[in-house]
Amino acid sequence: MSCAEALKVQAYFDAELDALSALEVERHVEGCAACRALLEDLGKARTLIRRDAGSITAGAALRSRIGHALDGENGPAAAIQRAKPSMGRSWPFWLGALSGIGTAAIAAAFAWLLVLPHAGTGLLDSLLAAHINSLFPGHLIAVQSSDRHTVKPWFAGHADVSPIVADFSEQKFPLIGGRADYFAGQRVAVTVYQHGLHVINVFSWKRNTGLPLRDTTRSGYHLAFWSLGDVQYCAVSDLNWSELTQLERLIRSSGEQDYP
Amino acid sequence: MGDERSRFEAQVLPHLDAAYRFALALTRAPDDAADLVQEAILRAFRGFQGLKATEAKPWLLTIVRNCYFTARERQRRETALPLRDDCDEIPEDSLVAAGPDPERSSIQEEQQRALGRLLPRLPREQREALILREIEDMSYRDIAAVTRVPIGTVMSRLARARVALKELWIAEHGAADR
């Protein structure tokens, strides 16, 4: 009844095809009655749906409700100030949390940064450099939020993958925000967690078909690798292994719940 | 702050109707949809920064959808009642009651009632794909981003939704009408 080309015909109908493929479909439809009928059905259904549901609007009551609710908000201006300490008067709250790490650690981080460029250009170096770089004031977080509904959509416009984002405050691994880094030819999504005074950067990028990555330790930082679907994850921190793998388990199981 | 608010209103609030229609497709109940949209808008406002204008719509709809699943999860934990999504009892006219508009003619109302009965009967995955494509005119790519599935899945969901809608329509109106 339905032709093997049905999905292609649908894509044609939805204007998803390039000119050349569209031409192919048009040629096919000329000689295929099933696909001609399909095109006609698609057109009827579209007319029906647009006519019926297109006029549904949010309504004045909801609009004014939302207006009032927005009046009660401090707004994103405050968030921007928090995310860009150099431009605002106040330090972001997480810097307070990080202050326990102390200037020595920052200095050590700086030293590593000077050394790293000579240590090779592999993925491990990129990850480590990105982690250390993130510990500088103002570099850790671009979107500062413990709300995964804020952090996750932000990645849609800033990174090439859509990673698992969840807050594990209850398990003492609160989500503190996200940012995007660039290495390995991709915009890598980074979700940032905190555990006590430690910061954990969880990098995620599109997995390529290279060698499987093994957990490793470099320059005193642990790197834990795992993958889910086509996304490769790597958690980097100076946490001990058992705590780092605990976070890995939390993220994995959260991913399995969210994306069954 | 005033600047941010007006920037937000200029970039995100034009998509309020889209957010509401999408919320309605998810919840199938006007009151729930309104609550969902309000929550999503507030979350969007809190996270609104450095957003490109072209990204605003899929971004907002993604937040609506995330809020929907969070609310559902909360509901599941707090009550032992079956969820709307899991049961077949669909509120009659759920799409129609959405926006009471005195200017709407009775013929239009009749048509809306027809679709209001049909669309909510589709599974959620099909409803959302269909609404995003046909009403919001979104590309497969954007639909895939909002609903967090590969483009191939979007295509097969759309195809199934369209077939299912046709069958429901024929069951109700007979084949001759089509």
Count up the helices of chain B. 8
CATH topology of the largest domain in chain A: Phosphorylase Kinase, domain 1
Count up the domains of chain A: 2
Q: State the end-to-end distance of chain A.
A: 32 Å
Strand content range of chain B: under 5%
In percent terms, what proportion of residues of chain A is strand?
15-25%
**Poorly predicted sequence stretches spanning 5 or more consecutive residues of chain A:** 77-121
**Spatial strand arrangement across the major sheet of chain A:** 1-2-3-4-7-6-5
CATH class of the largest domain in chain A: Alpha Beta
The main sheet of chain A comes to: 7 strands, antiparallel
- Give the uncertain stretches of chain B in residue-range form: 81-105
What integer is the average pLDDT of chain B? 78
CATH homologous group name of the largest domain in chain A? MucB/RseB, C-terminal domain
Radius of gyration of chain A (Å): 24 Å
Q: Count of DSSP helices of chain A?
A: 10
List the helices and strands of chain B in order. Answer: HHHHHHHH
Give the name of the CATH architecture of the largest domain in chain B: Orthogonal Bundle
The total beta strand count of chain A reads 7
Order of helices and strands of chain A: HHHHHHHHEHEEEEEEH
Q: Give the overall silhouette of chain A.
A: extended
CATH-defined superfamily of the largest domain in chain B: RNA polymerase sigma factor, region 2, helix turn helix motif
